[in-house]
């Protein structure tokens, strides 16, 4: 079958962009095939630093999660596992009618939502109701659901941070809405400025846009920042004052490394600020990140708290029903992520060691990579307080900028393309996430092993030194 013409495809699909798996990644995949075919390249392997995909980069699965999933799916394995694994699997078997091969409730198995609610309650000290939860095929599914419900026309707008995870801009394009940007303050550690939020919403409304919601990503993607509580509180108050839904992307909540920094959920911020009756808050969590990294299982949840329009809640349930249900393995894993083994249980010692070792290693890698980036000429990089990425700022030589203009190329994309061809390191241009005009960045993950991240740092330094020398 030949390539479809643009006339045969929904123009919204053609217009949607997702740089995390864009042209540079496609080129990397071809280079990987070339290496496998015996081609001689300047590197011996492709290192995918473009996406938060922990297991693909060598992170080991958490034993407890895999044991419960195995005991749940396969008969006769109970004797091979600790008693708390067996007890958890039996609890789930007794509550999942037909097992993991059957459809569940559209919002997810109730006993699994109860486990998630228990974990949220323990995390925040504020009761979570299982009826407020939707289990999901990854947080991305929840993003699509809420955008589909909120966007009626191009006049409907969602405020998103810039830089942003491009899922949000892609979803807005698919559903025909408008992105109203607000720029994070790079010099201030990628924080939010409420006065800037007010200016942006006023400008959008003056242009005839119906601004419906604001997205916060904390810890940040691609920026790796962790927002302070006072910043979150001011943002929640802004949303309450302006009548905006607050959408809180919290999928990196376990990934906080910087001393003195901590994750606070937006639901807790809203509750503690006395805003529960004044705005609707939607929170996302995913099993793809944290210390677990179960990306391929596609699991997560969204929680609806605060003052919700019943019509929106009904519409979200309708979309969940049309999708039938989230996959069962993802649901089960989500319940364990939010309610893992407790101290005193047989699996706790191994579980806590695996968790702590992974997070400690990620912290070391984040420090090593950000230090390596800051040592490069013309490069500055905020420390990665959390998440899985560094987002360095590059000041390019003027001659390189002039050459890119003459060739019709985007400077950060051209830099990332050259980096790939010279080193095999796959990154994502900052233009794929959005950035303040006149600045250039790229996103790079520190998920490769500690041995590999050492090699990445050396190759980055060699490439950048040669690149800069070329334009002096």
Automatic annotation (TrEMBL):
Subunit structure: Homodimer.
Listed CDD domains: AAT_like
One Gene Ontology MF term: pyridoxal phosphate binding
Keywords on record: Aminotransferase, Pyridoxal phosphate, Transferase
Cofactor(s), by name: pyridoxal 5'-phosphate
Stored SUPFAM superfamilies: PLP-dependent transferases
Annotated Aminotransferase class I/classII large domain residues: 74-455
Keyword Transferase tagged: yes
Protein name (Swiss-Prot/TrEMBL): alanine transaminase
Coiled coil: none
GO biological process entries: L-alanine catabolic process
Gene3D superfamilies: 1.10.287.1970, Aspartate Aminotransferase, domain 1 (3.90.1150.10), Type I PLP-dependent aspartate aminotransferase-like (Major domain) (3.40.640.10)
Family, per entry: Belongs to the class-I pyridoxal-phosphate-dependent aminotransferase family. Alanine aminotransferase subfamily.
Keyword Transferase among record annotations: yes
Enzyme nomenclature, EC number: 2.6.1.2
InterPro entries attached to this UniProt entry: ALAT1/2-like (IPR045088), Aminotransferase_I/II_large (IPR004839), PyrdxlP-dep_Trfase (IPR015424), PyrdxlP-dep_Trfase_major (IPR015421), PyrdxlP-dep_Trfase_small (IPR015422)
Enzyme class: transferase
Pathway: Photosynthesis; C4 acid pathway; Amino-acid degradation; L-alanine degradation via transaminase pathway; pyruvate from L-alanine: step 1/1
């Amino acid at each position: 079958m030949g390539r479809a013409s643009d006339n045969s495809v929904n123009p919204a699909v053609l217009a949607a962009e997702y740089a995390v798996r864009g042209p540079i990644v496609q080129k990397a995949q071809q280079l990987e095939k070339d290496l496998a075919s015996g081609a001689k390249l300047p590197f011996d392997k492709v290192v995918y630093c473009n996406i938060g995909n922990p297991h693909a980069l060598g992170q080991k699965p958490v034993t407890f999660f895999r044991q419960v999933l195995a005991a749940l799916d396969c008969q006769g394995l109970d004797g091979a596992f600790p008693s708390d694994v067996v007890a958890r699997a039996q609890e789930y078997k007794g509550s999942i009618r037909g097992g993991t091969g059957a459809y569940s409730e559209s919002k997810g198995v109730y006993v699994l939502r109860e486990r998630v609610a228990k974990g949220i309650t323990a995390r925040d000290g504020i009761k979570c109701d299982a009826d407020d939860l939707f289990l999901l095929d990854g947080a991305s599914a929840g993003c699509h659901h809420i955008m589909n419900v909120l966007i009626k026309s191009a006049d409907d707008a969602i405020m998103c941070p810039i830089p942003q995870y491009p899922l949000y801009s892609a979803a807005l394009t698919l559903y025909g809405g408008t992105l109203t940007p607000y720029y994070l303050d790079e010099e201030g550690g990628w924080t939010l400025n409420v006065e800037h939020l007010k200016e942006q919403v006023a400008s959008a409304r003056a242009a005839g846009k119906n601004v419906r919601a604001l997205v916060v990503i904390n810890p940040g993607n691609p920026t790796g920042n962790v927002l302070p509580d006072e910043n979150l509180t001011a943002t929640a108050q802004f949303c309450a004052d302006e009548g905006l839904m607050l959408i809180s992307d919290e999928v990196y909540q376990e990934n906080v490394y910087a001393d003195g920094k901590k994750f606070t959920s937006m639901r807790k911020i809203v509750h503690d600020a006395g805003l529960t009756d004044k705005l609707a808050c939607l929170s996302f969590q995913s099993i793809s990140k944290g210390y677990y990294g179960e990306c391929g299982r596609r699991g997560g949840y969204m929680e609806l708290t605060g003052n919700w329009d019943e019509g929106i809640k009904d519409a979200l349930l309708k979309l969940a029903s049309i999708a039938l249900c989230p996959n069962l393995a993802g649901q089960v894993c989500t319940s364990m992520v939010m309610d893992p083994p407790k101290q005193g249980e047989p699996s706790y010692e191994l579980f806590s060691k695996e968790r702590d070792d992974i997070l400690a290693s990620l912290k070391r890698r984040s420090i090593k990579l950000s230090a390596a980036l800051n040592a490069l000429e013309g490069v500055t990089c905020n420390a990665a307080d959390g998440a899985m990425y560094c987002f360095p700022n590059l000041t390019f030589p003027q001659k390189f900028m002039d050459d890119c203009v003459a060739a019709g190329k985007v400077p950060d994309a051209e830099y990332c393309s050259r980096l790939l061809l010279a080193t095999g390191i796959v990154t994502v241009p900052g233009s794929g996430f959005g950035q303040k005009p006149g600045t250039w960045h790229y996103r790079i993950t520190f998920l490769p092993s500690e041995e590999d991240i050492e090699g990445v740092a050396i190759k980055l330094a060699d490439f950048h030194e040669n690149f800069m020398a070329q334009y002096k």
